[in-house]
Amino acid sequence: MTDTRFDSAYHAPVLVAEVLDALKPKPGANILDGTLGGGGHSLALLEAGATVTGLDQDPEAIATARARLASFESAGTFRAFQSNFVDFDQIAELDGILFDGILLDLGVSSHQFDDETRGFSFREGAPLDMRMDLRRQTADGGRQRDGGGQTAAELLNDADEAELKTIFKDFGDEPKAGRLAREVIRRRGNRPFETSDDFVGAIRAVLGPRSGPGDFARLFQALRIAVNGELDALARALPAMRDRLAPAGVLAVIAYHSGEDRIAKHAFREWSLSCICPPKQIMCSCRAHSLGALITRKAVNAGAEETARNPRARSAHLRAWRKETQAPSSARKA
Fold this sequence. Notes:
The chain is α/β, with parallel strands linked by helices. Helix content is 38%, strand content 15%. It folds into two domains: 16-111 and 231-333, Rossmann fold (3-Layer(aba) Sandwich); 148-228, Putative methyltransferase TM0872, insert domain (DNA polymerase, domain 1, Orthogonal Bundle), CATH 1.10.150.170. Strands 1, 2, 3, 4, 5, 6, 7, 8 and 9 form a nine-stranded mixed sheet that branches.
């Protein structure tokens, strides 16, 4: 039976048992939860005896998790920082520390999705915002391609046709991405995009009256990924997190988008190879040894019971990788 005691009003964490099985936290293990959310995964890890550092760029998530985990924070086994996981190397308190496990649960929390003011959903009248971190703004209040400061409305109103097509095609797997990009540009010439209704109208104009929630969810997700620079952030963060694992430390990633899952899968597979030289190269000139080994040969998915209780778990894919056992010489253990 699926354990629901780690759920909260803020968020219902997915694959909790599977995460514990991958990380296998021993008493005193030092774990980095890079996507704290409502603190559900962190609570499970803390109850298993681990010491947890939580990160989240959403101040509401930090406040909620700290209130929920106050007893562990008082005991010195939990602490939290407001930060995007891609910036964890910039947190002075974490400088040089190695972790026995690192967890990334990507995507949007239940609370963020349900809060209409955040603009993550296609509910009628919701603002087109979608920023994970509302603190981040560009110096002139304008757009920024790395996910800092721009809203979804600004992206739709300012991006050129080529950029919009790329977002809809690469992040939304949309076959009619070019037509949708042109429709957005045509519509914004008459009136700027402001609410979810504006973007839903553009989608329906291109995909037809039979388009529905599945199409809206897919293309709104594409906008969110672009606004927050999520795929680029993940690609940059994974190697840095690998290097901050202790010997035999585990990096686990829960992805909800094919692009996220592909980045994690390819990174973990490459790190597990003993040679990454081109196939026709006669002599090896690369690192000549693997950096670690796959824990999950295939992505681990939620079971029927969990998806029935939490439909958002349907698209969750967990992958995990274990670092080699030889300790680096340049970092210290917390």
